[in-house]
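Reopening closed ticket. The problem is back. First fold of the pair:
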Amino acid sequence: MRVVSLVPSLTEAVAVSAPGVLVGATDWCGHPAGLDVTRVGGTKNPKADRVIDLAPDLVIANEEENREPDLAALRAAGVEVLVTEVRDVPQALRELARVLAACGVTARPRWLDEAEQAWSSLPPPQRRTTAVVPIWRRPWMVLGRDTFAGDVLARLGVDHLYATHEDRYPRVPLDDLRAAAPDVVVLPDEPYRFTADDGPEAFPGLPCALVSGRHLTWYGPSLAEAPRVLAEALRAAHR
């Protein structure tokens, strides 16, 4: 079985569950560390000719992270493409199982059971808080409706204020984000790399939680520890 992954979180899931199956991945596929496969470009601009030259049995992709014209070009060249859709945690777990089965994994990996257990055994939040969740600046963009990251936060007791916006990732002026007066501003380190010196200064007087983008937005082995890691970061913002 020869698999090319165009999604960083799926790359990690396949690499740790079926060593040797992956022959190609994007330039952004940084987990697991030291992954030795051919790099095929970015998630938004994969090099189709490089993918085709690898003669994969399967390319795994995602409807949000990858562009349909790129996937159509691969299909036109006779490459089988599996496209995932992930909008919440239960769907992520189902899609991960589907991807692994398609990659020839016959035994359910332990990390997937641990992830399911971690999310199914979450205690009810002691209180609910409101948040805005920027994912980019210049221009400012935030989580909107129907997103995996939004569902992750909601399960941890954090309700982001643009969850009913008509767009999934709306552009919102900074003054409007401040005026929304959230209980906390959640700043992940991807896709924009917010840091202690780049992000919190834009929200004076508001608690800011710097969180791992891998734990907030990736669906893969990181799901098993995501509830703990994210909860710790959220608590730290209120100290």
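Second fold of the pair, where the issue appears:
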Amino acid sequence: MVNTGDPQSELFTTIAWDGKSHLLSANLHFARMLRHSERLGLVLPENFSLKIFEKLISLSPVGEPVTGDDQAPFVIRVGIDKAGVISLTPRVNGAWPDELSAISLAAPKWDSSVRGTKHGDWQPYFEAREAAKEFGADISLLFDEEILVDGDRCMPVILDADGIAYHPRPSEGALDSVTLEQIRAGIEAAGIPIRPARLTIPLILRAKEMIVLGSGMGVQALASIDGRQIGQPRGRLFQAARDSWFVRLDCAWQSIEDLE
């Protein structure tokens, strides 16, 4: 899909794929697409979820899996443009180091109807991803002034000294993460409440640990931002989130039969 710079040109989501006929928590992704389409003023095709699965049948894996058991082997970018045309772009999922490093960048500026949605003007996120590579980091974290609002392909979550896990507020531009939606109950069952908050730089720097979440990456530990260590990686929050994610990888796959 060619980036036009127009947020209303397309709606998309990235879903974990088993390389055959199943998508991970497809119903949650489709529900988010519907929510975001209303904000973007896009009309989705009738029975779009079934049509996505029908197109999935004709796809073949694009390479050999390189991930471990903590990630899905493949991901698919599902796009629906303003004309209602559905596109599926599969790729092999990438492997991650045990502890990630990040750089900080300025978050893109969009109006309130666009911020926090998976929209057509995705180029700034691609550029943020490339910038991380250029600086020898794994990901970019995006700040609005001194408030952390997003990652280039992930949602950041911190464990504060008060024992509560905090993630960026959707009202301030953060994406409503499907991965967080899937593992929230498991994290809270492990004794860690999760709340939205303004993730200021002082709050981040005093964090006990930090993780990042995404449909492709799953749950990963983040060790540093711009060379500054953030807490102690792979701690209590990471373990609770990872355990919950493993449950999802084991039981949350859906096929077209699950939606009919």
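Update: turned out to be a display glitch only; the data is intact. The radius of gyration is 18 Å. Residues 236-251 form the longest helix (16 residues). Please close again.
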